[in-house]
Each structure stands twice: as structure tokens, then as C-alpha cells.
Amino acid sequence: MFKIVTKKVLSEVNKLMEIEAPLVARKAKPGQFIILRVRENGERIPLTIADSNKERGTITIIFQEIGKTTKQLGTLEAGDYLSDFVGPLGKPMELPSTPGRVIAVGGGVGIAPIYPKVKAFHEAGMEVISIIGARTADLLILEDEMRAVSKELHICTDDGTKGHHGFVSDILQTMLDDKSKKIDEIIAVGPLPMMRVVANQTRPYGIKTLVSLNPIMVDGTGMCGCCRVTVGGETKFSCVDGPVFDAHQVDFEELTRRSRTYLSEEKTALEKFEHECRCGGGN
Questions:
Q1: C-alpha closest to that of 238 among 248, 251, 246, 228
Q2: How distant, in Å, are the alpha carbons of 54, 124, 145 from that of 148?
Q3: CA-CA distance, 64 to 110, in Å (whole number)?
């Protein structure tokens, strides 16, 4: 059992939890993830490690309440326990060998997994320019944390309630067109459509672009094959070969199709859970 040490409500649907998991915290590196189960008979879901504290022996996760399991997770409070908390999984992100300029693009809850990567770039002496966006200002997360590890922080909202009225790709395009500033690397984390747009934007410029993928996943050790993605024409498993991949090599069309495989089952599970909660039987 793994104790929830702290819980913070970041927005109406975004929650932060600090989990007591000293063995995971001891080994965790930027880019890796964990798999948890809320209850013994529950679904196993992957979540990126948003932060870790070796001294406290804790791992920070940030999640958006979308489906049955994330909504169930959101009902827990500090002092409650998770049934399983496995990690760190996946390959750590590789840092550039020489200092340079990196642009980090985070969309929605994708700001959470991009934060530890930006923090690592910053600590490695890279010049980091961050662009974060959400549908509306109330859904923006980790703004102060991102600003603390970025030379520049640009904010976008779809509805114009904060920062640039538009998409993160708008700001990125302005930077790509600025020939006076060399860009050594770009990393984007967020919804699949956003990452696909960024990959298409940067491809003509030949700039190294990375994305962190979160496909359907079961065991997280490469055995089930559910998280397979096509990268450079080859089959890769996101759990052991990733989750960070070359954006220009990812088959986003296939990845998008696969992400929709269980939409009807996910909807049914959520409706059943919400019904049980209304009737007093959800747990």
C-alpha cells in the first residue's frame, strides 16, 4: 500500500498528489512514469512522474479527471492509500551533450510531464523557452514552477482568458520564423493533435523534435504489446523504448486510431462509476 502524503486541487479537473514511494523516488529520472492501481481489482493506469523527492521518499503525480479510474483516484484524500504504485518505468530522457537553446511546448495536462524535463534542461545549463497552453485560464497548471526553470515563459489559452488568445503552435511558429535565434531542440507534450501539429511545424526546419507518448498501456514492461507505436517504420513499445520519441518519426495517424480503440468501453465504465457514486456505491 502506498500512502497519499499530500493532495492539491489545481483546477476543477486537475489534481496533484504526492505519494510515499521511497524505492521509486530513489531511482526516478525525468521522462519516466509509474503505473498505479487505486484498488486491488482496479484498472492499471500510467502517469508521468511530475517530480520526485529522494529525501522525502515521495513521487508527485498530476492527473486530469477524465475517465473512471482518474475520477476514482480524484476522490481520495491525503492519508488514503493506493493499492499499487510501480516504477520508475520507461527510459529516462536524454539530455543534450552541449548547452544550447531548447523550446518546450506543453498543452493541457501535458504541462505536468513536460515540467520535469524542463527542470532537467535548466539544471543542465540549457536556455529554455517554454510555451504552455490550455483551453481556458482555469485549466493552466504549474505556471509558477515552469517560470522558475525557464528563461522565457509564454502562455496561451484557446479562449483568450490569459496570455495569447490562440494555440501554442502560434507562438512556436513565431519563434521558428525568427532567424536570429538558433533552436537546438524542441520537446512537446500534450494532446495527440497538438503534438502532431508541432511535429509537422518543425519538420521543414530540420530541428530535432521530441514528443512523450501515452498510448493504451497495461503492464508497462513490454510484455502485453498494447502500447506499441510505429516510429521510423518500426514497431516500438512506448513503455520500454520510450515514452520519449523522435516526433518526426512517429506515425501519428496510427497512434490516433489506436487511442480510440476502447472509447465505448471507457464511456460505459465511467457512466457505471458515476451512477454508483450517485447511488452511494462508488469506491
A1: 228
A2: 21, 14, 5
A3: 10
Rg (CA), the chain: 18
Give 202's DSSP letter: H
pLDDT in tens, 57-96: 999 999 999 889 999 999 999 999 999 999 999 998 887 7
Q: How far apart are CA 218 and CA 261, in angstroms?
A: 14
Domain at 29, CATH number: 2.40.30.10
Instruction: Return the C-alpha cell found at 266.
Output: 471507457
C-alpha cell read off for 61: 503525480
Among 62, 89, 116, identify where a domain stops: 89
- Residue 137 has φ and ψ, to the nearest 5°, of -60, -35
- Phi/psi at 31 (5° precision): 100, -15
Q: Which amino acid is at 238?
A: S
**Domain limits for position 39:** 2-89
